[in-house]
Structure formats: structure tokens, C-alpha cells
Design a protein that fits this description.
three-stranded antiparallel beta sheet; 3 strands; single chain; 176 residues
Length: 176
């Protein structure tokens, strides 16, 4: 026990606050998305990742890595999303052993419709509480943590557009 590096008072206070944010924010995001778009926060994230992918297609294994999910969890969520016409699974043409997830036109329309209210919710509950300087600090802090937590950078890829779900294709940006 002598070699344990216990948290000092400032670290413990910061840690407690970070845990509170990590626990509360997903529920706030999830509630708004469920109410307004009949999507969970994770389903929105899956749609956002697919909307950013070339051709709006990703291998299921790649999508699982990008959304920090196990393949079984992602498969379960994608199955439910398929039933609602948001995504389709098809065999991968380059590798018959792999399956691709495709964002459908209905899925694309759904994320375009959901994005404005979701972004407003993120803005209201996160960014409106911060000064511009604090936004920069938050980015730097998140980058430092992600360097340790996600050394391969899979989750952090295209983070700015993913967190807002801003449509990525040039022809659809004006609608976001």
C-alpha cells in the first residue's frame, strides 16, 4: 500500500467532477435524441460514423472499432436499426468473410433531421457553459486523455464532425 499513488485533494475533486459529467451527459443526450428522433445516443453515433464514411459504408468490424463497441453489441444495435430501415448489412465485396454496414437513404434523412436538435442540446449542455478559452482547454484535456485511452486514434478520428453529426457530403452541408 505504500507504493500506491493516491489522488491528492485537487485530483480527487477533478476526478469526481469528471465522473459526474461522464455519468450525466450521456443520459441528457440520450433523452433528447429518444424524445425528438427515436434514436439512442449510440444509434446516432453509428449513423454519424456511417454518414462520414466513403460511400456511407463501413465494415462492421471497423464500425465497431470506431464506435468503441464489441462486434456482438454493434451487431445487435445494427439489427434493430435494420428493422427500422436506417442501415443495411451486405457482404463485403472485397472480403466474403466480412460484412459491410450501409447507411440507407432513410438513415441519412434521419440523421440530417436529428442533427440540428442534437447539436443544440450539445451546445446548451456543454459549450454554452464554457468560455472560448475553456473550449480550447477541454480539447487539450480530451486530446491528452485520448492519447492514453485510444492510442490507435480510432475513436478520435473525425471527432469534431462525429460529435455533432454534421452531415459531411458537400451537397448536404447547407442543410445542417
Amino acid at each position: 500500500m505504500d507504493d500506491v499513488r493516491w489522488l491528492n485533494d485537487d485530483e480527487l475533486d477533478a476526478w469526481s467532477r469528471l465522473l459526474a459529467v461522464v455519468e450525466l451527459l450521456p443520459g441528457v443526450l440520450d433523452s433528447q435524441l429518444r424524445r425528438d428522433s427515436r434514436l439512442t445516443n449510440y444509434e446516432y453515433y453509428v449513423l454519424a460514423r456511417l454518414s462520414e464514411a466513403p460511400g456511407k459504408v463501413l465494415r462492421m468490424s471497423e464500425l465497431a472499432a470506431h464506435t468503441n463497441a464489441t462486434l456482438p453489441r454493434l451487431s445487435h444495435v445494427v439489427r434493430r436499426m435494420e428493422e427500422r430501415g436506417l442501415v443495411e448489412r451486405r457482404p463485403c465485396p472485397e472480403d466474403a468473410r466480412a460484412t459491410n454496414a450501409h447507411l440507407t437513404e432513410h438513415g441519412w434523412a434521419t440523421i440530417q433531421e436529428a442533427a440540428p436538435a442534437h447539436v443544440e442540446n450539445v451546445r446548451e449542455n456543454v459549450f454554452d457553459a464554457l468560455t472560448p478559452e475553456q473550449v480550447g482547454q477541454l480539447k487539450a484535456i480530451a486530446d491528452a486523455l485520448l492519447t492514453r485511452l485510444d492510442p490507435g486514434g480510432l475513436i478520435a478520428v473525425r471527432t469534431a464532425e462525429m460529435s455533432t453529426g454534421r452531415p459531411s457530403s458537400a451537397t448536404d452541408r447547407a442543410t445542417s
